[in-house]
Design goal:
By secondary structure, the protein is of the alpha+beta class. It is built from 3 helices and 14 strands. The two termini are 40 Å apart.
């Protein structure tokens, strides 16, 4: 009430006759409603009154991370600015200010019935030069969204995928070496001309050792191919998932408002 925070546990607030600013902040701080109202002496008024019907508009808070306060008229809103989304106000010219660690930036915007207007902030103004020319309609608000921008991903997924491919290649080399060694042992055997059991040109001990070594190479190669393929697929999936995260949100948005003798522009979005 006129910048003083009141809680539900306080039933009545005595006020001097005249015009007062009354704001209701949601429990989650994501929305606020503000009214200017004339209060007469000697009258108890329940808020909001049932007959309080007038054109209403909306101020959209762009969540400037550097801002610490938001004022409507000369009164700060007791809201969490990191969660605030909109402030419903009486249609017409709305004055306010955005407070920072150093400095207080006043603003004045024209809000029509059911119209949504962005609150100008320093962050928005720093990016205003990148916004294309807006609408020339008096009192209008245009919100223009640029195409969705996919999230940038570092080289880590491809390093993982490349490591997997390299492991699979080494495994294939081991498997080929094992198959070649077994073939050499088999080729060393030959049947004698007079018949009987096959005779090998290498000793039994050497043939046995070569055969065991070949099996070991094949086992290692199979494990490397399997693990390498899994790692390579994991790296590719990592890249795809990381790229798709947040791709549904617009990279930026420009809100342009104009009125006779004045204009404003804000920029909203994420930048990497």
């Amino acid at each position: 009430m006129d910048g003083t925070a009141l809680w539900e546990t306080r039933p009545d607030v005595p006020l001097a006759p005249g015009t007062h600013l009354v704001c209701i902040i949601s429990a989650e701080s994501d929305a606020a409603q503000c009214w200017h109202t004339e209060m007469a002496a000697g009258r108890r008024l329940d808020w909001p009154p049932a007959d309080l019907a007038r054109p209403r508009g909306f101020l959209r808070w762009p969540r400037d991370r550097a801002a610490s306060r938001l004022l409507i008229e000369d009164y700060p809103l007791s809201a969490d600015l990191s969660r605030l989304e909109t402030v419903e106000v009486d249609a017409g010219t709305v004055r306010g200010a955005v407070g920072y660690a150093v400095g207080l930036d006043p603003f004045s915007v024209s809000v029509g019935d059911e119209q949504v207007v962005d609150i100008p902030t320093r962050e928005a103004m720093r990016l205003a030069a990148q916004v294309a020319a807006g609408s020339s309609d008096a009192g209008s608000t245009v919100y223009k969204r640029t195409p969705s921008a996919r999230r940038k991903v570092g080289p880590a997924p491809w390093i993982v995928a490349g490591t997997g491919v390299a492991a699979a290649v080494v495994g294939a080399v081991f498997m080929a070496g094992g198959a070649s060694d077994r073939k050499a042992v088999t080729d060393a055997q030959s049947a004698p001309p007079e018949g009987g059991l096959a005779v090998s040109s290498i000793s039994y001990a050497e043939a046995s050792k070569r055969w065991d070594d070949a099996n070991t190479k094949s086992t290692i190669g199979t494990a490397l191919v399997g693990a390498g393929a899994a790692v390579a697929v994991g790296g590719v999936l990592w890249w795809v998932i990381a790229r798709s995260t947040g791709s549904s949100e617009a990279a930026s948005g420009a809100s342009v408002w104009t009125q006779p003798g004045a204009a404003g522009v804000t920029w909203r979005g994420s930048f990497q």
